[in-house]
Amino acid sequence: MAIRLEDKKAIVAEVNETASGALSVVLADYRGITSGDMTTLRAKARAEQVRLKVVRNNLAKRAIEGTEFECIREALVGPTILAFSMEDPGAAARLLKDFAKEKEVFEIKGLAVGGELMGADQIDRLAKLPTRHEALTMLAAVTQAPITKLARTLNEIPSKVTRAVAAVRDQKQDAA
Predict the structure, then answer these.
(1) Rounded distance between C-alpha atoms, residue 140 and residue 100, angstroms
(2) pLDDT of res. 164
(3) Which first-to-last residue range defines the signal peptide (predicted)?
(4) How far is CA 39 from CA 33, 34, 43, 45, 52, in A?
């Protein structure tokens, strides 16, 4: 069924707006996936702040113009689903990687982050990035480590004095 020009312009504008605000994008071939599986994938994507877009390749090529994802232009061949990570750069990669494990016919074509197109074999680089919460936890642990060591060191001084006094006491008791 043909899409009207106004509808095409709206689709291009919507995808362009999504791409402009996204941190990364993952492309996948969705041939052979049932509508029920796609519904499940979309629900998981919403929960992870990932926006899934199924758009004609010509419209997608127009939509990514002027964004950092222009590098995916050559990868837009055949039926393609675009997964844009909006808050966590690795969210779309984790989502589609897990979905590809469940569904063998679902094939990841590539991914892009920071204006660089990477092959599907690089999905782990992006998928293994920590989430925002995990990164903040690691930062807090690194920040807290020197303070913890200082507290332990300061606590060790009275402990050493106490052990020295106890050793002298034991020595005098043994001598007496």
Answers:
(1) 34
(2) 83
(3) none
(4) 10, 9, 6, 10, 11
What are the tokens at 94?
């984790």
Distance of alpha carbon 2 from alpha carbon 11, whole angstroms: 14
pLDDT, one tens digit per residue, over 85-129 is: 988 888 888 999 899 888 888 888 988 888 888 888 878 777 777
pTM: 0.72
Could you tell me the CA-to-CA distances from 50 to 57, 80, 130, 150 in Å, in that order? 20, 16, 16, 42
How far is 120 from 88, CA to CA, in rounded Å? 19
Residue 39 has pLDDT above 90, yes or no: yes
Pairing of strands 107-113, 24-29: antiparallel
Gyration radius of the chain over CA positions: 27
Q: Dihedral, CA atoms, 28, 29, 34, 35, nearest 10 degrees?
A: 60
Contact 28, 80 (CB under 8 A): yes
Residue position matching structure tokens 């606590």: 155
